[in-house]
Write a structure and sequence with these properties.
39% of the residues lie in helices and 14% in strands. The protein is of the alpha+beta class.
Length: 215
Amino acid sequence: MPLDTTMRRQEGLASGITHHALVTGKYRQLLRGVFVGHGTKVDGYVEARAALLVTHRSAFVSHHTAARLYGAVVPHCDKVHVSVPRGVSRADRSDVTVHASSRAPVLFRGQRTTSAQDTFLDLAAHLNLLDLVVLGDSLVRRKRATPEQLVRAAAEADGRGVRLARRAAGLVRTGVDSPMETRCRMLRVLSGLGAGDRCQVLRPRRQPPAAARLR
């Protein structure tokens, strides 16, 4: 089995991988009973695959894990998040948070997940205004949603976090290159100065090599 394959313990053993190989450095455990090759980059896609291997067949990734699957910027969370339809049993695991949801999942990169708009709405109940705008800007930058789609989704939503979602959606902008730029813009907004022009994030100038400086 390829080292970059996300697999359950029993699948690895059935394919001929020994227990010793699983626990002595060639592989790493992402979640309890789920392994991947030690050198594999663990990104949102790998986390999503791992989460769906250990949850109900109707589950779909959501919240922080869905945001990471979309390549968006979201605060770190120690657990992966999935949702299941209401009425489905939510198995208790220390490394997975399972939510009950009425959302209709979509497919992204072959994984069942909440849509970008629903991910934004779900996280409005867990993030502060600044982090939610950072999330929205990054979803727009990755072309997962438009500001107009986020505004419309928030306007049509109800429930926990909806007021924050509406405020944050109205502050999401296109053309934002980084979370630092979002934070710069939001500092002006929260200080009562207005968004103003696009924030210019200053980066240190690269120094030429020593040999070039001596010419």
